[in-house]
Amino acid sequence: MNFLNEVAIRHPHAISFAAGRPIDEHFDAADVHRWLDVYLKHEGIPASALFQYGPTKGIIAEPVARHLRADEGIEIDPAAVLVTVGAQEAIHLVLRALRRDDRDAVLAVAPTYVGFTGAALTMDLPVFDVRDGDDGIDLDDLAETVRRVRHLGLRPRACYVMPDFANPSGRSMDVPVRHRLLEAAAEHDLLLIEDNPYGFFGPRRPSLKALDHDRRVIYVGTFAKTVLPGARVGYVVADQRVHAADGSVSLFADELAKLKSVVTVNTSPLAQAVIGGRLIEADHRLREANAGPAAEYRRNLDRMLAGLERRFSEPRFGGRVTWTAPEGGFFLVVDVPCVVDDDLLELAARDYGVLFTPMSYFLRGGRAVSQLRLSFSRILPEEMETGLDRLAALVADRQLP
Amino acid sequence: MNFLNEVAIRHPHAISFAAGRPIDEHFDAADVHRWLDVYLKHEGIPASALFQYGPTKGIIAEPVARHLRADEGIEIDPAAVLVTVGAQEAIHLVLRALRRDDRDAVLAVAPTYVGFTGAALTMDLPVFDVRDGDDGIDLDDLAETVRRVRHLGLRPRACYVMPDFANPSGRSMDVPVRHRLLEAAAEHDLLLIEDNPYGFFGPRRPSLKALDHDRRVIYVGTFAKTVLPGARVGYVVADQRVHAADGSVSLFADELAKLKSVVTVNTSPLAQAVIGGRLIEADHRLREANAGPAAEYRRNLDRMLAGLERRFSEPRFGGRVTWTAPEGGFFLVVDVPCVVDDDLLELAARDYGVLFTPMSYFLRGGRAVSQLRLSFSRILPEEMETGLDRLAALVADRQLP
Q1: Across the interface, which of B21, B53, B122 has its CB nearest the CB of A53?
Q2: N or C: which end of chain A has fewer CB within 10 A?
Q3: How many CB atoms lie under 10 A from the CB of residue A226?
């Protein structure tokens, strides 16, 4: 990712299909001021309360729990919610808590969001791939991987999944697969880490956490895509019971909070209040509040699929360029008849004026493959058309015979 | 610290000398709105720029560097500044980067800020104590500890110090000691991690970083005490050169940024803009801007010292209660003729209505000692007098013969 960032800085005029950013034209500084005031008025507290340190677990667990009930059908005690500095800190804390010693390991559906594997890497926690397949997760491969990990003398603690419009694949799990995954997790005594940044941007399906009656699922959420990234507010729902050596029982969220106290102490109460005000103003219904952006992402996705079809169905590609057709989200993946590595990315930016994310970034060991990820979340129609023209020209010039 | 928090919640009417919070009566929501606007206007950027993700290293390195020049005499390239979620994330990242494998270790002047030892503990990084003594650091003990750590087959990477009005001891290092510490660090090939949350609240001395001509000092700063804690914005100055295996050279700040990208991605641009606006409004001179609060902390410290003297010079204590007399900061330490453990804290809160921090919290292994830390930063005069009366009653009742 660092190389991608460097290339983007060196070639600022290249059209970017790389960054997975939300739309921001509608953002206004007045929103931030108003949401702050809405929060303070609703809670009946003085502004100075936001200016001090706050509790490690955060101050908006209650509105977050209401939002989860209204939008996701997840019934959760606010005590099981830990507010974090974005979903990334939630993932970091969960991995740190799951790693007790060097016999612990985690699984992840591959290709995998780099923030997950990156965090695991910094704490020497091994990650084992599970194939995604057409279902979003290959349950046979999950079972096989669990067996393999145990055979190595390791303890598979959890499997990381993004059931809705996954980053980077765009794939989703249908409802029967979700039920079977929960059953498999129980059978293998695995936790599931459900990361759901894109769930509002496509057809609605119940989240794993909404279907979870067994406290199997640790649910990671973020307001980066549904309110604004710049607040850096996310959360984790962790209602698992933790039994201490002295016989006492606590919630996993409280164990995570202890770790958080030595990572960031607490999440900015100011930033939390901005998000809290937005939740209150929207009556905790962010799906409805995001209907406009969701429709825009959908139009972009349709335009992208049509644009790919129009260009890559040309005879010169010989049907060798294919792509995933997600139902929503921010991303899709294109298979191209050439190796997609940093050299190709540099060439694409410099000579063709287009940027994308090599899929190698989402694969173990970073081995180069002939796939790239395209983001369509924040790109104007004319930019998208020009960008796809450039991509087609690149692939036409570089395709292997 | 968790037990202290629980006791405080169970006894909300107890007078607290426990929390080290800045004064907040002067905070107003209008300040936050104005600082945001000042920042946007000064930078000439649209508000939407704050609403997106931002660069991992942050957006206010330039005003932070100007502030360090104006207030601390530290000349630093903004490229060596990484903006973090409070000083805590800076400490966390520095420790994580220094720990390459299980042969690495760090040193810390004891008693030590719990955020440092707590962070080291979560990453299995051993911490070795260095005595503070009257100088704020015992340099003979530093040399002896380095020898001992090396003899154990470990690599002492850095020593953590708080040269100005340390938490919890209140002690400061005078200027000759600072010079000798820098020489000792060079001699032992140690880095120094200088944490400076309280430097503006007492007589000014040059920071170690201002005296450092050898890139020995990693400087950790925070705006929690000088602007507002609720923004959760701190930073680290890390201008050390890191030589990679491929011969390339980078700044340590960039290595820390890579780690940050999988911990919190970046620090809230919104929160950074609030701090940035404050810095711009104050012409980057926070020492001047904090003259009012600094005078208030000084009055509180004088009142505290007089109040301790008045009560504990009574014959019934037989001269057995003593205390440190810091020149500034938020804290001092009292020696009492009884063991200060969680039981005493519970009793103090319940039966006497007073809270403090047992010094055992700042010591390795948490062994109970006959010392407690008192914070005087945010307490009204009448509360302080009543609180000290209660503390004197507790000690009188509990003192050992």
Answers
A1: B21
A2: C
A3: 25
Specify the pLDDT at position A52: 85
Give residue A53's pLDDT band: very low, low, confident or very high (50, 70, 90).
confident
- Give residue A26's pLDDT band: very low, low, confident or very high (50, 70, 90): confident
Nearest-Cα distance to chain A for B100, in Å, is 10
High-pLDDT (> 70) share of chain A, %: 100
B-chain residue closest to A24, CA distance: B48
The pLDDT score that the predictor gives to residue B354 is 98
For the stretch B42-51, pLDDT in tens is 999 888 888 8
Which of B262, B286, B310 marks a domain boundary?
Answer: B286
Cβ contacts of B224 on chain A, cutoff 8 Å: 53
Q: Does one domain contain both B231 and B320?
A: no
Closest residue to A266, CB basis, from B28, B121, B232: B232
A165 and A219 in a single domain? The answer is: yes
CATH number of the domain bearing residue A338: 3.90.1150.10
Q: Which of residues 328-367 of B touch A (CB under 8 A)?
A: none
Among A47, A54, A121, beta carbon nearest to B29? A47
Per-residue pLDDT for A1 more than 80?
Answer: no
Return d(Cα A376, Cα B340) in angstroms, integer. Answer: 61
What ipTM was estimated for this complex?
A: 0.94
Judged by CB atoms closer than 8 Å, whether chains meet at B27 and A51 is answered as yes
Residues of chain B where predicted confidence (pLDDT) is lower than 50 = none
Extract the tokens encoding B376.
């005087």
Q: Is A148 on the interface with B (CB under 8 A)?
A: no
Binary contact (B123, A121; C-beta < 8 A): no
> What is the b/e burial string over A360-394, where b = at least 16 CB atoms within 10 angstroms of the residue's CB?
bbbbeeeeebbbbbbbbbbbeeeebbebbbbbbbb
- pLDDT tier for residue A179 given thresholds of 50, 70 and 90: very high
With 0-12 / 13-18 / 19 or more C-beta atoms within 10 angstroms meaning exposed / middle / buried, residue A284 is buried
How close is the nearest chain A Cα to the Cα of B257, in Å? 11
Chain A residues in contact with B115 by the CB 8 A cut-off are 261-262, 265
Instruction: Fill in the amino acid letter for B287.
Output: R
- Look up the CATH number of the domain holding residue A212: 3.40.640.10
Q: What number is the average pLDDT over the span A20-38? A: 86
Does position A171 have pLDDT exceeding 90, yes or no?
yes
Structure confidence at residue A400 (pLDDT): 83
Who contacts B353 (Cβ-Cβ below 8 Å, separation ≥6)?
B11, B13, B14, B15, B390
DSSP B61-85: HHHHHHHHHHHH-----GGGEEEES
Distance from CA of A400 to the nearest CA of B (A): 31
**pLDDT tens figures, A99-137:** 999 999 999 999 999 999 999 999 999 999 999 999 999
User: Which of B286, B312, B328 is at the close of a domain?
Assistant: B286
Mean pLDDT, chain A, rounded, equals 95
Nearest to B227 by CA among B273, B275, B270, B288: B275
**Do B93 and B171 belong together in one domain?**
yes
Helix B29-43 × helix B269-281 angle, to 10°: 90
Predicted confidence at residue B3, as pLDDT, reads 83
Structural domain containing residue A174: 29-288
Same domain, yes or no: A11 and A47: no
Interface of B with A in 271-290 (CB under 8 A): 271, 274
A324 and A268 in a common domain = no
Residue of B265, B375, B400 lying closest to B16 (CA atoms): B375
